[in-house]
Amino acid sequence: MDTQEINKIGTYEFTVEPFHADFQGRLTLGILGNHLLNCAGFHASARGFGMTSINEENYTWVLSRLAIELDDMPLQYEKFSIRTWVENVYRLFTDRNFALLNKDGRTIGYARSVWAMINMNTRRPADVATLHDGKLAEYVCPEEACPIEKPSRIKVESQDPVTSIVAKYSDIDVNGHVNSIRYIEHILDLFPLEYYKELRVRRFEIAYIAESYFDDELFFYKDRLNESDYAVEVRKANEEVVCRSKISFG
Amino acid sequence: MDTQEINKIGTYEFTVEPFHADFQGRLTLGILGNHLLNCAGFHASARGFGMTSINEENYTWVLSRLAIELDDMPLQYEKFSIRTWVENVYRLFTDRNFALLNKDGRTIGYARSVWAMINMNTRRPADVATLHDGKLAEYVCPEEACPIEKPSRIKVESQDPVTSIVAKYSDIDVNGHVNSIRYIEHILDLFPLEYYKELRVRRFEIAYIAESYFDDELFFYKDRLNESDYAVEVRKANEEVVCRSKISFG
Q1: Chain B within 8 Å of A193 (Cβ-Cβ)?
Q2: Coil, strand, or helix at residue A43?
Q3: Of B95, B101, B70, which Cα lies nearest the Cα of B83?
Q4: Which of B173, B133, B138 is nearest to B53 (CA)?
Q5: CB distance A128 to A119 below 8 Å
Q6: Model-level pTM?
Q7: Interface probe with A: pick from B174, B186, B194, B230, most Cβ of A within 10 Å
Q8: B250: closest CA among B206, B207, B195?
Q9: Which of A192, A217, B103, B194 is least buried, going by the fewest C-beta atoms within 10 A?
């Protein structure tokens, strides 16, 4: 790997904190998601296209899709690392991939994310490819493998919500929206503890469709697709779809 | 400050991550609590009386009380640091204090915590003072000031819960209990967003009384003590008190 290639990929080290481990002592998927998005931020900032720099030009990154596939999850107090790189830059989207490495440096999972850039005033999509005089394209690293499927199209048939929650103070981020990680946690909370005892989440996908806000009541619709797979749709009281997710236990 | 004194105090550096900031862009109190408890762990582990070492001898630390008092809170992406030290060691408890320093190194808050040690088999309290041949006493640092009131006795009169929640997967820690930080978040979620817009949490206290578990329904009782202060009690369906908290807005 030459220097240029190293510069395309960012590697970040973590340790599983006690409150970031679930009842099985393993890192929770919500916290992993949080770390992935932080790494996206670290990587982009260090290369001049992070949130702070594009905010100055009145643009912001919006996470559109995230898919995580795991063979294993690090345990409480274990070190692990996350590698991230840009796979593609299109006009309206960019694909960013991740690898999760355990304490021994072995890859135990991958993730794919799709991001749009919007103009903060108009809320309209902006042209990612021309950002920074096309600088983002310089970091594209298609040669790095990410051997998991791309985020799929998720459809939920159920018309009866399994539960609802009201968005609270702790759900809301600096933009006034329910934060992306909280949706993951609320969706994982739809499953009984037995699922996490006997199985593990092998793949988790989420597509973010609309924002929700403080005091919004969010309704969760859940389809069982087969023995191990579930699809979940989150809707507001007015039926607007907020996000869709697919969870594969295995 | 001589070397011995420096060794009594641990200092740990952090940055406010995007998902750790609330809608005002300030670090949330729940995440601050998480960092404080992590620092307690770092400090204790580095001195031979951390969770991992005492677990080997079949003991575990149990957080009994936490009081946090703040003049300010760091903003998203800002650096801050936490200093922690042991103030007292009694037979059944130890007092650990904290200072919160902003990016410029100015102290912007303090916290006090009270910990018990229990035998993991009998669940009975153990003698903290004799732990490690009394080694914990060597680190006692009463000369370091913590100019905030000790945790108080909290009483809640209300007999009508304002809300209830059912403990979910994301609430549960590696011991199978609802984790200490989640209670803080659920308690802060009892207040409307306007409180956090116009005021800030000046002081937050919590006393942990009993454990709760997956699927427990937790009922929240809230007294308004005066213009700015609230007391909250969390009880199970069988009326058992899980924790009590006092929140002062200002």
Answers
A1: yes
A2: helix
A3: B101
A4: B133
A5: no
A6: 0.95
A7: B174
A8: B195
A9: B194
Q: A19–B52: do the CB atoms touch at under 8 Å?
A: no
Distances (CA, A) of A14 to A17, A72, A76: 9, 16, 11
- pLDDT tens-digit series, residues A32-67: 999 999 999 999 999 989 988 889 989 999 999 999
What are the beta bridge partners of residue B248? B203, B229
User: Domains in chain B, ordered, with CATH?
Assistant: 3-138 (3.10.129.10), 163-249 (3.10.129.10)
What is the ipTM, given to two decimal places? 0.93
Q: Which residues fall within 8 angstroms of residue B72, CB to CB, at 6 or more apart?
A: B102, B108, B109
Find the closest chain A residue to B213 by CA distance.
A23
Tokens read off for A135? 């600088």
Per residue in B190-238, pLDDT (tens digit) is 999 999 999 999 999 999 999 999 999 999 999 999 999 999 999 999 9
Q: Which residues, in sequence order, are CB contacts of B77 under 8 Å at separation 6+?
A: A52, B15, B16, B18
The reply to whether residue A24 touches residue B215, judged by beta carbons under 8 angstroms, is no
